[in-house]
Specification:
Structural class: alpha/beta
Mean pLDDT: 89
Low-confidence stretches: none
Number of helices: 2
Strand order of the largest sheet: 9-11-13-16-17-15
Number of strands: 17
Largest sheet: 6 strands, mixed
Strand content: 25-35%
CATH topology of the largest domain: Jelly Rolls
Helix content: 10-25%
Number of domains: 3
């Protein structure tokens, strides 16, 4: 008695079938194969076989859908392209005159015109520049401090004058035909600051203490020294808070 194949259930004769029964089974096998492969018939040139459903051996001939890319066209810096066969696309190397791909570099000393700096390289260069700038600023300040000072002047022509903060390191001139009183004020100058003053006119200059100020000098009156004569000069030095030493041509 005939049996069937395991996958498609096609009938096949067994070794115990009679010749008549075997012939019948072979006929049935042929019919089953023919029925199973019927979908392979037909089709035209260019068509492909596709599944028609989830049913086994259910196929249909269809026209293969052409892709919508018929060619690859490139422009610089891309290279290659084509309309058939294997298409290769590349990219030119970038230079100072051509667009293209460049390699990144962390170097801060390279002179290459084809490498591109990374953020790390830019940050490193920035830090080096910042340090160099700070060093240059310090050196400039040191150099300026070593240069000879240019004296600024403050010309006074009245018979009274009270020193101001802007007079520090200046040369104040006092010029009048009558006696002149110069007052040293409190809470204006810091320790170490000084003012130079000279008597330009014939009116003699006498120094006076502002409220809370103490003047010390080698003058006849220590707290109220006078400039000795016309063109005489003195230096008023702040030695402590509201304390001043006057030195020079005094009497």
């Amino acid at each position: 008695m005939a049996t069937v194949t395991p996958n498609f259930n096609w009938p096949v004769p067994t070794s115990t079938d009679l010749v008549r029964d075997g012939a019948t089974a072979i006929e049935a096998l042929g019919d089953s194969i023919d029925a199973s492969l019927v979908d392979l018939k037909g089709g035209t040139s260019g068509q492909v076989l596709a599944k028609n459903s989830n049913t086994d051996m259910d196929f249909v001939w269809v026209t293969d859908a052409a892709g919508d890319i018929t060619g690859v066209t490139v422009s610089s810096p891309l290279t290659g392209g084509g309309t058939s066969g294997t298409v290769t696309v590349g990219i030119l190397s970038g230079t100072t005159s051509n667009l293209g791909a460049v390699q990144l570099s962390d170097s801060t000393s390279s002179t290459s015109t084809t490498l591109a700096a990374t953020a790390n390289a830019v940050k490193t260069a920035f830090d080096l520049a910042t340090t160099a700038n700070a060093t240059a600023t310090t050196a400039n300040a040191t150099a300026n401090a070593a240069l000879p000072k240019v004296i600024s002047f403050n010309a006074q022509t009245g018979t009274t004058y009270t020193l101001v903060a802007a007079d520090a390191t200046k040369l104040v001139s006092a010029s009048n035909a009558s006696p002149i009183t110069v007052t040293v004020p409190p809470s204006v100058f810091s320790v170490g600051q000084y003012v130079d003053l000279y008597q330009l006119g014939v009116g003699q200059v006498t120094f006076a203490q502002g409220a809370g100020v103490t003047i010390r000098s080698a003058g006849a009156v220590s707290t109220a020294p006078k400039i000795t004569r016309q063109f005489g000069a003195v230096t008023i030095i702040c030695t402590a808070s509201n304390e001043f030493l006057i030195v020079g041509g005094i009497s």
